[in-house]
Design a protein that fits this description.
Blueprint: E1 11-15, H1 27-37, H2 58-68, E2 73-79, H3 83-89, H4 93-96, H5 110-122, E3 129-134, E4 150-151, E5 154-155, H6 156-165
Length: about 170
């Protein structure tokens, strides 16, 4: 979007699709995603780190986007243990042993740790990428009334408005 409409401000809000570091999103599953979904054809050609041998593209891709589009606003909305995505991440457990069957359980608390790692390590210090993390396991939050989703006294509506208006007080929640 940013390269197609380069003269316009771009705000990207992702609802329940978190990129995570390899400790939380197994490289074998990332490699499977690249191969199955044909991501090598869609990942940016100038992102040299987005095609590692082990397939772990998610973190390098986030770093690429942050470096390439430092003026764009990026936000992620997620629950602490999204029941849909954490089940999918379970396919990566045990070195992807369950790719052709039912996913292995994704360890309790690991999903939240992955979100915290994203917030505290991968996007730390980036003024243009923020996380809105909600207790619970619901998958997709933008289908709720944004005034009813509240964390630490901050409504999702207010967080989104700050992102969209470039408010300098926009921050991670929590």
């Amino acid at each position: 979007v940013a390269s197609a409409f380069c003269n316009d401000d771009v705000t990207l809000i992702v609802d329940s699709g978190p990129p995570m570091g390899s400790q939380f999103l197994a490289p074998c599953l990332q490699k499977h995603m690249v191969e199955t979904w044909g991501l090598n054809g869609t990942l940016p050609a100038d992102c040299a780190d987005c095609r590692p041998a082990d397939g772990a593209f998610a973190e390098p891709y986030v770093r690429y986007i942050l470096g390439k589009y430092p003026e764009s606003t990026l936000g992620l909305i997620s629950t602490e243990s999204d029941e849909t995505i954490s089940q999918f991440w379970g396919f990566g457990e045990n070195n992807c042993a369950s790719l052709t069957g039912a996913p292995d359980p994704y360890p309790a608390g690991k999903y939240k740790q992955g979100l915290e790692d994203l917030r505290d390590r991968i996007i730390a210090g980036q003024g243009n990428f923020k996380l809105f993390m909600v207790p619970g396991s619901e998958h997709v939050l933008l289908d709720n009334d944004p005034t009813s989703v509240v964390v630490g006294g901050v409504t999702l509506k207010d967080w989104l408005n700050k992102a969209l208006t470039g408010d300098p007080t926009w921050s991670n929640v929590p």
